[in-house]
């Protein structure tokens, strides 16, 4: 009787497909601005108009929404530049609140303007600051951190709500940059500001 040789069955190869984890979605700054329905202003003054001599109007005479934006971010009224870079830091000059008609939001807070209006004016200044940053960097995603904000409020000696006004800037920076937008800050009152502006704000940013 012939012997039967038993052969072990060859195990079937198991094909394992390893799927790479989906990359984490990054919200770029430009995309975040669109999501918030915000438009950065133009940083080039119009030909034939002196940027240091704008038409001054009372802001509260016109309706305003968050998506309003100044036509020109950095009307310059002196011998200086809008931004200076040293190493990985950019220092922005003080910016004023220009509305979408190219007119400044002027007046003393709590006398000519209320706090909510001044808060919105601080947001407009912030859009101008971001426009200047973009002009210097080419891409706002190169901002590593907003380091410090200095906010000046046109107000009388009895006014004490300077932080609430400059929150318009701080809140917008955090909304756009997230944790990178949190910063050190000064919020102070001045008896007058250039062109009777309601607010003036500058900032320091760390960049790539």
Description:
22% of the residues lie in helices and 20% in strands. The chain has a single domain, classed as RutC-like (60s Ribosomal Protein L30, Chain: A), CATH 3.30.1330. The chain has helices at 29-35, 115-137, 162-177; strands at 56-58, 83-86, 89-92, 104-106, 143-154, 184-190, 199-207. The strands form 2 sheets. Strands 2-3-7-5-6 form a 5-stranded mixed beta sheet, with helices on one face. Strands 1-4 form a two-stranded parallel sheet. It has 208 residues and is α/β, with parallel strands linked by helices. It contains 3 helices and 7 strands.
> Any idea what the radius of gyration is?
26 Å
Q: Work out the helicity level.
A: 10-25%
Task: Tell me the CATH superfamily.
Answer: RutC-like
Order of helices and strands: HEEEEHEHEE
Low-confidence segments, ≥5 residues, pLDDT <50?
20-25, 46-72
State the strand order across the main sheet: 2-3-7-5-6
Number of domains: 1
User: Given the C-alpha coordinates, what overall shape results?
Assistant: globular
CATH T-level fold name: 60s Ribosomal Protein L30, Chain: A
Number of helices, where a helix is a run of at least 4 consecutive DSSP H or I residues: 3
Which descriptors apply to this entry?
single chain; 208 residues; alpha/beta; 60s Ribosomal Protein L30, Chain: A; 5-stranded mixed β-sheet; 7 strands; 22% helix; 20% strand; globular
